[in-house]
Structures are given as structure tokens and as C-alpha cells.
Amino acid sequence: MARLDVTEMFQDISFPGHLHTQDSLQQAVEFNFQDTDILIASYPKSGTTWMQEIVTLVYSRGDPHLSQTVPNWTRAPWLEQYYCTAVLEASSAVPRLLTTHLPYRLLRTAIQDSKAKVIYVSRNPKDVMVSFYHFHKMANFLPDIGSFPEFLDRFLEGKLHFGSWFEHIIGWTQTAAVSNLLHVTYEEMLLDPQGAIKKISLFLQCPLAEDEINNCVKHCSFSSMKDNKMINYTLVPQEIMDHSKGSFMRKGEIGDWKNMFTEEQRRRFDSVFSSKMQQCSLQFVWEK
Ligand code: A3P
């Protein structure tokens, strides 16, 4: 394959510099997917970590040992981060579990002819934005966020790190030419965890018995994950994530946006949402 020009590909999208390098982005866009790979794709704050936990638990048939002893970034490394290659080389796990926040257009060349399984996780964008806003306060590797109204503007304009939420969801759910893609929403995982885990386990061709599903549900609940150091990011140094300013496992709810948005902000958000999503038939759960 001819070398892809990452400078050009990434000219209108930015990623936090401490984890993403020119080399790591190059490796991601030229990644050699194996047909057995499982890729979790999501925009940040959509339930990525939760899905990493669910897939780990499904393959362990509900046994929490692996998810309680190995950090999620080693179990399911981010394709575009600098340490991914080293983690994959050190592991003989099959299938390989990978994670990405890249929009589909940047992975198209690498993934389109592969039979790798993709699980796309989405969440209603108002809750994504509010969660991302709080995350910016504790994540020292993210830029200064400004006020909530300024953050909202940047989110709607697609000017935050990781790019546009609209482009991300449309790319992965409406245009991706990936043969094996399952779309799972944060809201269905919260409202019907048994059903969501069953659906995911069938997609992974790893059907589970009812008690195994119930064990998965128990160990990937918000309270279990909040207490699990392998997934709650408390192992990360304070210079990178400052847990005195907030928790990674923050609230885990549907509809928290209602505590932040003014009526005028809701109207503005809805208006941008309707115009950018007019070709998209997806339905969202905005509140419980
Ligand atoms: P909040 O900030 O709204 O609480 P990601 O992993 O994509 O960065 O997403 C993080 C968001 O998912 C956070 O949202 C976090 O609390 C929530 N989350 C993670 N695990 C969860 C679980 N088991 N149940 C509910 N929400 C969960």
C-alpha cells in the first residue's frame, strides 16, 4: 500500500499530543487488521470504557479476573496511541481487542476490506458534551476549556480535540463500508444491560448462558467499574488526570445535560443537531 499522507489527513482534526504522535497516527491509518480483530469505535465520552469492560467480560464468560487485574489500555489499546504497537507485540491474545476514537474517514483505507468486527458505541450528544466538559476539567492533557457556553460552541463547531461528533457518528453508522459492524448505544446498555450484553455476545459469536450474562452485568455496573482501578483511571499519574478535580466514572446517567443547559442553549443545540443530522435516521434517547 502506498504511504498515506497523515499531515494532510489530519489537517482539520487534532488529538492530545502526549499520546498521539505523527508515527502513531501513521501506524493507525495503515494498520494491518486481522479478520479476527475486534475494534471498539466511539467518540469520547460515549461509553468506550464501558464497552471495553463488556467485551472483556463476555470473552471471560462473566469472570472478572482479567478486568480486575489488567488495565483497560493494555486489554484494549487505542490504535492511534503511541504505545499500541508495543502492547500488541507483547500479547498473544486472539482475538485482539482494539479501541479507536478516529472518525471512519481516517480508518477507511485500513479497515474497509477487512472482516474485523467493529462495535460502534454512541450516546446522545448532549450527554456526551456535558461529560466531555467535565472530563476537560480533570484531564490535564486537554486544553483549557473556557466557560460552558464556549465549550458548547466548540462542540457544535467540531473544534474540540477528536473532531466533530456529527462527522464521527455519521461516518461510522451511515457511510462505513465495514462488513461486520454492530451499533450499540450507551442508553441501551443502561436501560437494558442484559439485552445489550446478549446482543454483543452474539455478535462476537460467544453466546453466553443466563448466569454468565448476569455476571457480566454485575461486573460492568457503574458501581463495580467505579471501584475498579484497572478501569477508573486512578492508576494514571495526577499530572495527566487530576482526580481531585473530578472522577472519570463521574455520574453514569442519561439526561445529565438537563442540569447544565439553559433553554436557549437547548434550542441552539437542537437547531444545529437538526441541520447536521437531517440525512441521518438514528433515534436518540435524551432523558430517562
Ligand atoms: P459521565 O461523565 O456522564 O458520568 P468514555 O469511556 O467513552 O470516555 O465515557 C465515559 C462516560 O461513560 C462517563 O460518563 C462514565 O461515567 C460513563 N460510564 C462508564 N462506565 C459506565 C457504566 N458502567 N454505567 C454507566 N455509565 C458509565
UniProtKB/TrEMBL annotation:
Entry-linked SUPFAM superfamilies: P-loop containing nucleoside triphosphate hydrolases
GO molecular function, one term: sulfotransferase activity
Keyword Lipoprotein: no
Main location: cytoplasm
Pfam family, one: Sulfotransfer_1
Keyword Cytoplasm among UniProt keywords: yes
Entry similarity comment: Belongs to the sulfotransferase 1 family.
Protein name as it appears in the record: Sulfotransferase
Species of origin: Salarias fasciatus (Jewelled blenny)
Gene: sult5a1
